[in-house]
Amino acid sequence: MSKPLPTAVSALLADRADAIAEAARELAAFGWTPATSSNFSMRIDDQLAAITISGRDKGRLGRDDIMVIDMNGKAVGSEYRPSAETGLHTQVYRRFPDANVVLHTHSRTQSVASRLFAAEGRVRLEGWELQKAIAGHTTHDSTLDIPVFPNTQHMPELEARVDAWIDAGKPLYAYLINGHGIYTWGHDMAEARRHLEALEFLLGCELDLRRLSP
Ligand SMILES: CSC[C@@H](O)[C@@H](O)C(=O)COP(=O)(O)O
Ligand SMILES: [Zn+2]
């Protein structure tokens, strides 16, 4: 049996769970979380985060569908299994101390773009006004690379690729996983949502350009 959560942590979990459930309902309504796919988390403090329980329908989350993990991805105060991709969430919290929310979705646009751009290893975004929706970007006149990493069921392998990108000094705001979906994050839910919506739009534009260009 797991130890019950301290009251203060329970209150913070309830707060984070409500925010995650609300955002997830909206993202599911866009069709970005099909068939129980996708996962979401919010930092609680330096040591803990709230994350979706594995396998739950992300469009119908309630407080009981979100649990606490530590920064090693271990369940805290729960017997449930956290998201199968928990390691990718805790990695963001470890590598980006300003990130407090991580969103992962599986939209059709994200999935198709990940396949189409996998061979290049990245989607290069240039000249789009909406690049300014990404934190720190003030002009369309810049280059924004979204890496595409190979898919694997072995999270440490993916984590190593993400670490290698960051350790090479390359900016990272989001990444695609080939044939899978997107990960992005933000300082708060509003920023993470803005990143996700902007990238969905920009990836859709890139797909249209490929489709329409002779
Ligand atoms: C239902 S297939 C999608 C899963 O394999 C996975 O990629 C996913 O996004 C959801 O996994 P979960 O363990 O529910 O967080
Ligand atoms: Zn996934």
UniProtKB/TrEMBL annotation:
InterPro entries hit by this protein: Aldolase_II/adducin_N, Aldolase_II/adducin_N_sf, MethylthioRu-1-P_deHdtase_MtnB
Alphabetized UniProt keyword annotations: Amino-acid biosynthesis, Lyase, Metal-binding, Methionine biosynthesis, Zinc
Reaction catalysed by this enzyme: 5-(methylsulfanyl)-D-ribulose 1-phosphate = 5-methylsulfanyl-2,3-dioxopentyl phosphate + H2O
E.C. code: 4.2.1.109
Function, in words: Catalyzes the dehydration of methylthioribulose-1-phosphate (MTRu-1-P) into 2,3-diketo-5-methylthiopentyl-1-phosphate (DK-MTP-1-P).
Family: Belongs to the aldolase class II family. MtnB subfamily.
This protein's name: Methylthioribulose-1-phosphate dehydratase
Source organism of the structure: Luteibacter flocculans
Lineage per the UniProt record: Bacteria, Pseudomonadati, Pseudomonadota, Gammaproteobacteria, Lysobacterales
